[in-house]
Structures are given as C-alpha cells and as structure tokens.
Design a protein that fits this description.
Radius of gyration of chain B: 27 Å
Strand content of chain A: under 5%
Structural class of chain A: mainly alpha
Strand content of chain B: 25-35%
Largest interface: A-B, 77 and 69 residues
Number of strands of chain A: 0
Distance between the termini of chain A: 59 Å
Distance between the termini of chain B: 65 Å
Number of helices of chain A: 9
Largest sheet of chain A: none
Number of helices of chain B: 11
Oligomer: heterodimer
Order of helices and strands of chain A: HHHHHHHHH
Chain lengths: 168, 439
C-alpha cells in the first residue's frame, strides 16, 4: 500500500515539477537555488501523511512559502528585486519598455504584483490563483482587476509611450 | 499573443519568456532529490511543515549515527524499498554480475536465459558489456566522466546490451550502501562512446523505469490505465530516443500480465452473481452477517482500512435516492462512464461533487437522466427488481472511517481524477458486473 503512495508521489512529481520549478526560478532567478527549493516543495509534500491533494495551487502555495522564507529579510528582498530588474533588462536586450514594465510592477503593492505574476507569468487559471492566494475565486477576480488598474496607473507614470499603446 | 496589452506586457518580462527550455528535466530532479543527503535548503518554512525533524536527523547523521537517514534519504528508502519489494517481476533476459575486480575485462558470472541464446559475456560493437566498462557523468557542476568505482561495481549488474546501448541495474544493497535511494525505481542506460559505455545523467535517456514500476503504474486493476508494462516501457524508450527495437535485448521481456497484483471479488446474491475487480491490498467484507444468497451489503476498504466504497444489493441496506444534477442541481457531474458489466445500457459510473460550502465528492453507479441538460437526475440502478448501490458514500459529511472526499473547489475535485487513488476506486466501481444465474 505504501508503494501506491510512492507511485502517486512520483506521478505528482512528474506532472508538476516543471511548473513548480518555473514558478520558483521566475521569482529568484537562481537556477541552482530554484532546483533546491523545488526539491524542498516535494519533500514537504512527501511529509504530508495521507494527503489526497494533487493540485498545482497547493504545490505553488508551498513554493511561495519557501521562496518567502528564503527572501524574507528586507535587504535580501531588495537585492533580489534589483537582480530581477537587471535580468529583465539584459535578457530582453535592454529594452526600455521592459524596464518600464518592471519598474511599474516593482512599484505595486506586493499583493498586486503577486497576482499579476501568477496570472501572466505562471499562466494560472482564476481557480488556481484563488487556491494559491487562499481566497475565493470571485475575490481573486476582484483582486486581479484592482491589480491591473494599479499597474496601468503605475505604467502611465513610468512610460507615456507604453500607456498610449494600452489605450490609456 | 493575446489582445490583452497588460497581459502581454507583463508576460514579456517573464524571466523564462526567452528561455522556456531552461527548466531541468523532472525525472533527473526527482532522482537527485532522492539521492541527495541534504535536508531542506531553507531556514525555517514556518507553517508549512515541521522541519526540525529533518535537521535533527541531519545532526544525528553528522554525529555518526548513520543508520538515521536525513529526510531526503528517508523518502528515497521508502520509494526504492517498496518499489523493490512489491512484486517479483521476472529479470530481464540476461544478467551478468560484475566482479569486484577493477580489471578492465573482469570475468563475468553469467546467468544465461533458459534458451541459452545469450552468451555469458555480452559484447556490442566489440566492447564487452561489463560494469567495469561503464563510465558515469553526474548532472552536477563538474560533469566529470568517471568509471564506476571498483569498490562499487559489485552493486551493479548488466541487464543487456545491443548496438552500442547497455542497460544495467543496481542491487538493493547498492542502493542502501551508496545512498542512491531512488535508484531502484530505474534501470540505468549507457551508450557506447569512445570505446566505453557512458551514462550521462544530463540526458533523458540515462534511465528508464523498472519493470516493477511499469507493472504497478500501468496495472489496470490498480489505476485503470489500459496499457501493459511492455507498452509503457516501449513508450518510454521511444520518448527518450532509445531504439524501441532493442528493448527486449536491453531490459528483457518484462513481467507476464498475471503478475499485476489485482484480485476479483465474486459472490452470489438473490439469483445474481456480483463480480468486481480490486487491488489485492483492498479488503471486501460484509457490513452485516447475511443469509447465503440473500441481500448483499459489503464494505470495500483500502490497505489502511479506510472504507472506499459500499455495495448494497436488495434488502434494507440498499437505498433509493434521487439526486438533482446539472447547473441548477445539487450535484455536479465531473465524469460519467458507461458500465460495461451490466445489461442496462444506461448504467453509469459517475464521479462528481455535491455543492455546498465545501464540495463533497462521490463516485457512484447510477442511472443518469437528462445528462448535459439544465436539470438532470441520478437514480439507483435496479437489477431484477432489486436496488443496487455501489458508491463511495452519499452522506455529507462522510461517515467515520470512510474516505474523505471534501474539496476546496471544483478544480481541485477535478484534479483528483488524475491521481492513482481515483483510478483505483473508479476501477473498482467500473468493473462491476451483475449476471443473472437463472437460465
């Protein structure tokens, strides 16, 4: 019987590892640490006895906590934001547009940035976002709407040309 | 690209946007996770799980108590140990045990197949297929190509080789002593390069699941997958770029279909024969003592003695129900499968959730009237005028001792259908057959 749980665990890992790893790597931009934290997510899962959960929202909730722990200290958090900004601008050819988008994101409240990234980086459905943020689906919709509004406002402040593209 | 400019702008700054292929291969990550002695990499993930245990074990290990494994190792021992003990799958066609000698061409003690068609020492492209001729390249920073250390060679055995490919396995002792705890779920694969075989752990072809894994993972009686271990192995070969036509020569024929570990329940009741399949670890017991050939009331429990289903046929245990479904109803159907083992063509195995603050899931056999319409109805099946129930439980909340199928939302409930647990239960219900014994 134990082996059945192990097989379920292997299947869970197989189905979800790429998304868990990608979620973490997007937020810390450190492939080695991302691999370690992704492994930790599945260790946590393994330690949950008798769990029947297998949804990506639950896995990303654990990942979110682990990333939060790794970067909880304010100084490390700021260093991470700088690193991500640098990566954004260098990876995408130093485009002003991406730097402006990054700045607009960085200026958001954490919870607004969080939901925008869950939706548009990780491609989660509204139900999955609600699962990660541990709120109802309708609350998640409202939060996403507010975050979009705040982002639009920030972007207008950072780049007039892009906000024109958005029709603002 | 969507027409949503905000989505497009933010997605454009996704750090993985320009390099989606930079995600490590999951199988290698799992193997690494199981084989690394390190515990958690974070400092204190409060509220997630108690990690003090892992640290305590790590400290104990550092103090020399090597019998206490670190968290990751414990996982691996369980995975490897249990995968290794559940079934006795036949060995591949030929097994050539390595000697402890570090000599470049060790004497192999062959255990040829009964046909004797495989020589004691296999060769491919002129190179002897021995453990001493295998190099390994770890998926780490160094990526050094190194022979399997002479002292470790005794733990490995060559399964087969052909046309420049070689498959080999590690023994349970090796798994334990080398702390490569996930190793027994896989056969290792090496490729001939520069006169020696190389297992390059950065490549997906460096391993395939063992027959034991494929037999369990694809056992229809356990999880409903309709492929044989051989089909699963061939698919894995093809997916990983290993020539499928070499499968038999590399890892052998695999287990016979009879080794898959299922069981059949059969009992006569009121002129009918009730039959269904279940995993061998499950137990089927009468809920109450009954007369021979009388009404039936059964409890089906898993290996933890959790009731996963109840069956009632005739008598007071069988209940009538009338459950409204569809968008307006109290029950949302997530899966509906025709039952082949009943004469009634409208019989279905249905999985869905009762709506409410928390969703209660249930699998049941039923008639579905008006499926796909605004309102539909689930009613019990009737066989020979007798009511037949077979379900995971319709009570909300679930009875004590029964499987807990509460879900936070529909997506989670739907996601459960992808789990082996769901497949096992669905298979139990889905294999129900009722045949008349009269005439």
């Amino acid at each position: 019987v134990l082996a059945e749980r192990e097989l379920a665990f292997i299947a869970l890992h197989k189905d979800n590892y790429p998304r868990v790893y990608a979620y973490i790597q997007r937020r810390i931009n450190d492939p080695e640490l991302a691999q370690e934290l992704a492994a930790d997510v599945f260790r946590v899962v393994w330690q949950k006895p008798q769990t029947t959960k297998s949804d990506i929202a639950w896995l990303l909730t654990i990942a979110r906590n682990l990333v939060g722990n790794a970067y909880r200290a304010r100084g490390r958090q700021q260093a991470l934001q700088e690193k991500l900004r640098f990566a954004t601008t260098t990876t995408f050819g130093g485009s002003d547009e991406n730097a402006a988008v990054h700045d607009a994101l960085a200026a958001l409240r954490d919870k607004d940035r969080d939901i925008l990234q869950l939706a548009y980086w990780d491609g989660l459905t509204m139900a999955e976002i609600a699962g990660v943020l541990q709120c109802s689906e309708s609350a998640a919709k409202v939060r996403l709407h507010r975050a979009r509004t705040a982002f639009r406002k920030n972007l207008a402040a950072h780049s007039e040309s892009i906000s024109q593209k958005m029709g603002a | 690209m969507t027409m949503d400019p905000i989505r497009n702008l933010i997605a454009g700054t996704d750090p993985l946007h320009s390099n989606p292929s930079g995600i490590p291969e999951g199988e290698a990550a799992l193997r690494r996770m199981l084989s690394e002695p390190a515990a958690f990499s974070d400092s204190a993930p409060s509220g997630v799980v108690a990690l003090e245990d892992a640290r305590r074990r790590r400290r104990a290990k550092a103090a020399g108590l090597l019998t206490i494994a670190a968290a990751a190792v414990a996982v691996g021992v369980l995975v490897a140990g249990n995968l290794g003990s559940l079934t006795s799958a036949p060995q591949p066609a030929s097994t050539v045990a390595a000697t402890e000698s570090p000599a470049p061409t060790p004497t192999a003690s062959g255990t040829p197949t009964p046909t004797g068609s495989v020589p004691a020492v296999l060769t491919t492209n002129g190179v002897e297929c021995t453990v001493a001729n295998i190099d390994q390249m770890r998926n780490d920073r160094k990526q050094l190509r190194e022979p399997i250390p002479a002292g470790d060679q005794k733990y490995y055995s060559v399964l087969g080789c052909a046309e420049g490919w070689l498959a080999y396995a590690i023994s349970d002792d090796g798994v334990s002593n080398l702390q490569l705890d996930g190793g027994n779920a896989w056969y290792l694969i090496a490729k001939l390069q520069d006169g020696r075989f190389l297992t390059d752990f950065t490549q997906v072809w460096s391993s395939v699941f063992t027959w034991k894994f494929h037999a369990l993972n694809n056992d229809v009686s356990q999880n409903g997958q309709q492929v044989t271990p051989q089909e699963a192995m061939d698919k894995e070969f093809a997916d990983k770029g290993i020539p499928v036509e070499l499968r038999q020569r590399l890892v052998g024929d695999g287990p016979a279909p009879a080794d898959t570990g299922g069981a059949t329940f059969q009992q006569a009741s009121q002129g009918h024969m009730i039959t269904f399949q279940h995993p061998a670890a499950f137990k089927v017991q009468p809920e109450t003592a009954g007369q021979v050939d009388g009404p039936l009331a059964l409890r089906v429990a898993d290996g933890f003695d959790t009731r996963i289903a109840s069956l009632a046929f005739g008598g007071p245990a069988a209940v009538d129900f009338d459950i409204s479904c569809g968008p307006q109803g109290s029950f949302e159907i997530l899966e509906s499968v025709p039952l082949q083992g009943l004469a009634d063509p409208s019989a279905r195995m249905v999985y869905g959730v009762f709506r409410g603050e928390l969703l209660h899931g249930a699998l049941l056999i039923a008639h579905v009237e008006g499926a796909g319409e605004q309102t539909c109805t689930l009613t019990p099946l009737r066989v020979g005028g007798l009511t037949l129930n077979f379900d995971t439980g319709l009570a909300q909340p679930s009875d004590a001792g029964a499987i807990d199928l509460r879900f936070d939302n529909t997506e989670v409930a739907r996601g459960w259908t992808a789990t082996p647990e769901y497949n096992r239960i669905a298979t139990v219900l889905g294999t129900l057959q009722v045949t008349s014994q009269q005439g």
